[in-house]
Design a protein that fits this description.
Strand order of the largest sheet: 2-3-4-7
Number of helices: 10
Order of helices and strands: HHHHHEHEEEEEEEEEEHHHH
Number of strands: 11
Shape: elongated
C-alpha cells in the first residue's frame, strides 16, 4: 500500500520545479492531502477536478494527464505496486464544464449534489456566501460538522450537473473545534488557498497561489489568531453558524474591552499602548467579523471617545530650563 508521503518523496527527488506538471502535482499533494492518506484513484480524480479550476490547465490537460500516468507508473516500479491501474484514473474527458450564471443555480446545484451524498441522520444547509460562492453546512449524525464552499464552475458528469470541486473544506468536532485529524483547506482570495492542520490548539500550514499551487507564507505551531489571514477567513465563515456570544474569541475581546473601559473611567491614562492595541483589535473585529454586534460597537465607540479625550487632556511635561 502506497501513501501520499511516498509519492511526494518520489516527486521531490525529481526536482519538480523544473516541470510545471510535476510541480503542480507535488504542490497539490502538499496543499490538499495529508501524508498518511492512501494513494487511490480518487486521489488523482480529485486532483484533476482541482486543477480544472484554472484556465491554464483546461488548455493543457492532456500534457498533465500524460505526466501523471508516467510518474505513477515509474513510482510503482521504484516503491511498490499501486492498488490501481494509472490508466483507469477518471480522465476528465467526459466532463463538460459549465459556469453557472446565477446565485440560485449555484445554491440548487450544491444542494442537489450534497443531498445525494448524505448519510442517514445527516442534516444539510446551503447558504449564499457571496454572489460567486455558496457555503454548505453538513451536520453529521454524530454532531460533527463539515463546511464546504463552492464556486460557479461545475461539470456535467454521467448526466448530472455537480460542483467541480470544493474550494474550502473545514471539519469540526461536535464542540465546533477544528479536527486535528483532517487537512483543513480554506479559500483565501479567488482560487488561492490556505492549507493547515491543528495540533494541540496550534496551527501549522501555508498559503498556496497560482495554477501551480505555489507555496508561500509558511506558519508553524502558531496560535490561530496570530495568523491574520487565516483567522479572519475562519471567523467570517464561523459567524454564519456559531453565535458570537459562544465564540471564545468574541468573549475574550468583550472581556478586554470592559477592563479597558473601567480603567479609562477610574484611573489615569497609564496603559495607552495596551488600550490602543485592544481598540485596533476591536475595530478589525467590527469591520471583518461581527459588523452587526451592538455591544461590541458600543464598547469600542465609548472607549475610543474616552481614550481620545484623556489623550487630549493629558498634561505635557514642561521643557527643562
Amino acid at each position: 500500500m502506497s501513501f501520499v508521503t511516498h509519492f511526494k518523496q518520489y516527486l521531490s527527488e525529481k526536482s519538480p520545479e523544473k516541470n510545471r506538471e510535476c510541480l503542480t502535482l507535488y504542490n497539490y499533494l502538499r496543499c490538499f492531502c495529508h501524508n498518511e492518506q492512501v494513494l487511490t484513484q480518487d486521489t488523482f480524480t480529485d486532483f484533476y477536478r482541482k486543477v480544472l479550476l484554472f484556465p491554464y490547465w483546461q488548455s493543457h490537460f492532456v500534457s498533465l494527464q500524460k505526466t501523471l500516468k508516467t510518474e505513477l507508473t515509474s513510482f510503482a516500479k521504484i516503491y511498490q505496486p499501486l492498488d490501481f491501474d494509472p490508466e483507469e484514473i477518471t480522465s476528465g474527458k467526459q466532463w463538460q464544464l459549465v459556469n453557472l450564471q446565477t446565485e440560485s443555480d449555484l445554491k440548487d446545484v450544491v444542494h442537489s449534489h450534497l443531498y445525494r451524498c448524505l448519510s442517514p441522520g445527516d442534516q444539510m444547509k446551503v447558504l449564499p456566501l457571496n454572489t460567486q460562492r455558496a457555503l454548505a453546512l453538513v451536520l453529521k449524525f454524530d454532531g460533527s460538522l463539515n463546511v464546504f464552499s463552492f464556486g460557479p464552475l461545475s461539470i456535467i458528469n454521467q448526466g448530472k450537473i455537480e460542483p467541480l470541486t470544493p474550494l474550502s473544506e473545514l471539519h469540526y468536532s461536535s464542540q465546533y473545534e477544528l479536527k486535528p485529524t483532517h487537512q483543513q483547506i480554506i479559500e483565501d482570495t479567488k482560487l488561492n488557498f490556505i492549507s493547515f492542520r491543528v495540533k494541540d490548539k496550534k496551527v501549522s500550514g501555508n498559503q498556496h497561489h497560482s495554477f501551480c499551487f505555489q507555496q508561500s507564507n509558511i506558519f508553524k505551531n502558531k496560535n490561530i489568531y496570530e495568523v491574520d489571514a487565516l483567522f479572519s477567513l475562519l471567523k467570517k465563515i464561523e459567524s454564519l453558524f456559531i453565535q458570537a456570544k459562544s465564540d471564545p474569541h468574541y468573549k475574550q475581546l468583550i472581556k478586554l474591552l470592559h477592563e479597558h473601559y473601567r480603567q479609562l473611567l477610574v484611573a489615569p491614562l497609564n496603559q495607552s499602548l495596551e488600550t490602543q492595541a485592544v481598540l485596533s483589535q476591536a475595530k478589525k473585529a467590527i469591520k471583518n467579523l461581527y459588523p452587526h454586534d451592538r455591544l461590541l460597537f458600543l464598547l469600542t465607540a465609548n472607549i475610543d471617545f474616552h481614550f481620545r479625550k484623556k489623550q487630549k487632556n493629558k498634561p505635557v511635561a514642561s521643557a527643562s530650563q
